[in-house]
Amino acid sequence: MAATDFVQEMRAVGERLLLKLQRLPQAEPVEIVAFSVIILFTATVLLLLLIACSCCCTHCCCPERRGRKVQVQPTPP
Predict the structure, then answer these.
(1) Which Cys residues form disulphide pairs?
(2) Tell me, what's the pLDDT at 18?
(3) HSE on the CB side for 6, CA within 13 Å?
(4) What is the Cα–Cα distance from 44 to 50, expressed in whole angstroms?
(5) Is 72 left (phi over 0), alpha (psi -120 to 50) or beta?
(6) What is the DSSP string of the chain?
(7) Rounded distance, CA 8 to CA 39, Å?
(8) Burial class (CB in 10 A: 0-12, 13-18, 19+), 28
(9) Which of 3, 38, 33, 2 is nearest to 17 (CA)?
(10) What is the pLDDT of residue 55?
(11) For residues 42-70, b (16+ Cβ closer than 10 Å) or e, as one string?
(12) How many CB atoms lie within 10 A of CB 35?
């Protein structure tokens, strides 16, 4: 039951976003700037999330862990 409610809510949000995009050419400059700021903020957050995930997955910030050191013993003559 909750899954269908979620799908319907996402569809409603998508339809509202599409309606806003269709009305954007006739919108006032303040609305265009506000919409642009929201889109830019969302894109920035998604980009930073992608960078953080890729750095975490590639371990570029962490030094490579080395195995245990083994002492070398001299060989008898």
Answers:
(1) none
(2) 87
(3) 3
(4) 10
(5) beta
(6) -HHHHHHHHHHHHHHHHHHHHHHGGGS-HHHHHHHHHHHHHHHHHHHHHHHHHHHHHHT-SSPPPP----PPPPPP-
(7) 23
(8) exposed
(9) 38
(10) 78
(11) eeeeeeeeeeeeeeeeeeeeeeeeeeeee
(12) 15
From first to last of the 77 residues of the chain, give the pLDDT tens digit: 678 888 899 899 889 988 888 888 888 889 889 988 999 999 999 999 998 888 777 766 666 666 677 777 888 77
Structure tokens at 77: 């003559």
Tokens of 13: 């949000």
